[in-house]
Please model this.
Amino acid sequence: MNNKHLLIVSLALIVSVTLNVVGGFFIFAGVQSVEELPLGQALPATDSPLGQAAAHPQQVVTNTVVKQMTWETVEASSYLDYIDNLRRIGCPEKTIRDIILADVNKLYKTKRRAASGQKKFEFWKANAMFGMGMDKDNVETMRELNAERDELLKQLGIESSFESEMSLILNPLQQSLGFLPEQKQVAVMKELQGIQSRIAELSEDGSADIEMVWKAQRETEESIKGMLSEDEYTGYLLRRSNTAHQLRSQIAGFDPSEEEFRTVFKLKRAFDEEYGEIGINLDLLEEQLKAQKTLNEQIRQSLGDERYADYERAQDYQFQQIHSSLKKADLGTGEAIQVYDMQKVAQDAALQLRGNQTLNEAERRERLRQIRNETESAIQQVVGTEGWEKFNRPSNTRWLQSISPNEPKPVPTEQPNP
Model:
């Protein structure tokens, strides 16, 4: 079927982000203080001896009672004592380093996972996948744990390895899949790594066939679906599907609740499964546009008129630009809406002026300049000095230029030399 697809940029971006995250998947590790570290948690005690020879100790005839050496006799309540015990039994320094480093990493892998699990991954928020899910508080917590681990290793005189340092890289993908049991997390990760390899093969000549990539993604989703329960698979789609990624990119300023996000996602997912997620099908254009109108009406009925107006405004690229710019100045959705409304009013007024045939060209230019100046002044009052500095960029103020262009700066005339 010769289907031509448009608007494939969003899919390419989503695929790129997914592959970059999968490629950067590393196990977490972390730190505790020397006094607090319960070694029994790090290396569980076992009745097995430290070496093979000790597994069947020879019966030595002696007057001295020989205590069999096991991990219980080597482990201690602190790492410093643990290291001393390892040295007493003749353990090589490199082996000691490897044992202690692995033990520290194991302990703090658990601690980091517990810290990450304290806050629910809020997949319904626009910034949920920024850095693929790491919120500010979580990043700060992980940074503190890394600092503690570094201090512990310094106290112990142990230098970390490259592999150990790489394990400290924040793993937002693990957080987004944290609702799954650990074994299923690993299984899903393997599938995502598999599609990474497949797409790499499809891109050997430097470009990928979009339909082939799309097919590979669908096959991967079907494979993952077979691993999970119905609720788990829905949770996966809410976090990792193209539909969810695209929806999150279009809700800045809409700020949906979890229930609202689930409602809109369910409707959009059904549409995407019917008509594809990679753009408009030219062969079915009329049918698809009709279905899009039906989808919008279903969303309006589900959200109500007021919330649908918020949702619809969030789809406007100009509003997204305004919202993003003001966010950099620590301003919120309220200010962004005010600026957006001012833009609409100014543009409507300018349109009416241009159609007013009773004005001559000079009068029209002057009135348009007044609209621009008044609008700029009103925006500055809403956003403040810092907000205006962040907002006053060509990409944000091009519409003001279209109302009334900047006056050309006078060219200085050269004064003749006396």
